[in-house]
Design goal:
Strand order of the largest sheet: 3-2-1-6
Helix content: 10-25%
Oligomer: single chain
Distance between the termini: 27 Å
Largest sheet: 4 strands, mixed
Order of helices and strands: EEEHEEE
Number of domains: 1
Shape: globular
Radius of gyration: 15 Å
Number of strands: 6
Strand content: 35-45%
Length: 82
C-alpha cells in the first residue's frame, strides 16, 4: 500500500507542508501548518465514490483511469520543524 507523506517545513517566511515536492500555502506558524497537514492527510484517507478520473502526467500526457472510491492510501505527517 502506498504511503503519502506530508512534510511540514519552513517555507517562504513561514511554514508549509509539502507532498511529493509540491508546497501548500504558507502558514504564519508551525502549529497552523501541522494542523493543516493533519487535515489534508485525513481528507486523503477519506473514501469517496468509484468513478473515472482524468489527470495529466509529469510528461504532459493525459490519462483516464478507473478509481475505486475505497482504495485510499495510508498517510503520515512528518514534522521536519522539530
Amino acid at each position: 500500500m502506498a504511503i503519502v507523506a506530508y512534510h511540514v517545513v519552513e517555507h517562504d517566511g513561514g511554514w508549509a507542508y509539502t507532498v511529493d515536492g509540491v508546497f501548500s500555502e504558507t502558514f504564519p506558524s508551525h502549529d497552523a501548518a501541522v494542523k493543516a497537514a493533519q487535515r489534508a492527510a485525513a481528507e486523503q484517507r477519506t473514501p469517496g465514490k468509484t468513478e473515472e478520473i482524468e489527470y495529466e502526467t509529469r510528461t504532459g500526457s493525459w490519462k483516464i483511469e478507473h478509481a475505486e472510491g475505497g482504495d485510499r492510501p495510508a498517510t503520515e505527517v512528518v514534522d521536519e520543524g522539530d
